[in-house]
């Protein structure tokens, strides 16, 4: 008993510093795609890496928590405070604007342009379409090129399917129409074309063996 009390007395009141790991924070190791793994920066977070590579970490729109750059904020503010090019309202053909003074007397009447003049003005103001700017990064272009190459994987027949096809061939030979109406050997009502493809695949596997 005395020994236990002595141990307790000698124990320091200062808590010992231990290295604790937050279970919710872990390093992301990209193992899905070799191209992303090669261009992955371990010092950056998942969202930062995806943004740098031109990808999105979440398909849904952000609800906040995203830092905006100072340059973008300043440009947006400058665009909002910019004065309009023309303070006069645009009048449609057949409309007129009456300008009055402080006493209500008519000073001037501004008439809208005719339909022909308005059509000519629209043609002059119409800007030439230069196309949509391609904002894709090189990584995105390479990933799209990888996705465009479709590698078709041939499905191998199971032993049960091989036995089923063999039973049909032994009973009917190459008469696929009779195979369709056999309720015992073809309970799932496979079509003649489907059975024919399975038989051809089975014959190829028999030749390889």
Automatic annotation (TrEMBL):
Keywords: Nucleus, Ribonucleoprotein
A Gene Ontology cellular-component term: nucleolus
Key word Cell inner membrane present: no
Protein's UniProt keywords contain Ribosomal protein: no
GO biological process: ribosomal large subunit biogenesis
Transmembrane regions listed in the UniProt entry: none
Pfam families with a match to the protein in the record: Nop16
Record's compositionally biased regions (Basic residues): 8-28
Localization: Nucleus, Nucleolus
Assembly description: Component of the pre-66S ribosomal particle.
Function noted in UniProt: Involved in the biogenesis of the 60S ribosomal subunit.
Protein family membership: Belongs to the NOP16 family.
Protein name: Nucleolar protein 16
Native species: Morchella conica CCBAS932
Lineage: Eukaryota, Fungi, Dikarya, Ascomycota, Pezizomycotina
């Amino acid at each position: 008993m005395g020994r236990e009390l002595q141990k307790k007395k000698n124990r320091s009141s200062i808590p010992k510093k231990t290295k604790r790991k937050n279970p919710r924070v872990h390093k992301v190791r990209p193992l899905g795609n070799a191209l992303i793994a090669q261009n992955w920066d371990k010092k950056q977070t998942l969202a930062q890496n995806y943004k740098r590579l031109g990808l999105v970490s979440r398909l849904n729109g952000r609800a906040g928590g995203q830092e905006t750059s100072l340059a973008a904020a300043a440009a947006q503010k400058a665009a909002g405070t910019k004065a309009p090019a023309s303070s006069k309202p645009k009048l449609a053909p057949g409309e007129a604007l009456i300008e009055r003074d402080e006493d209500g007397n008519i000073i001037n009447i501004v008439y809208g342009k005719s339909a022909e003049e308005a059509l000519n003005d629209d043609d002059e103001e119409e800007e030439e379409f230069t196309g949509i700017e391609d904002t894709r990064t090189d990584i995105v272009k390479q990933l799209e090129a990888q996705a465009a190459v479709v590698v078709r994987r041939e499905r191998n027949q199971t032993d049960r399917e091989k036995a089923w096809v063999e039973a049909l061939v032994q009973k009917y030979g190459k008469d696929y129409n009779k195979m369709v109406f056999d309720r015992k050997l073809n309970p799932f009502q496979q079509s003649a074309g489907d059975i024919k493809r399975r038989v051809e695949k089975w014959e190829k596997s028999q030749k390889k063996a």
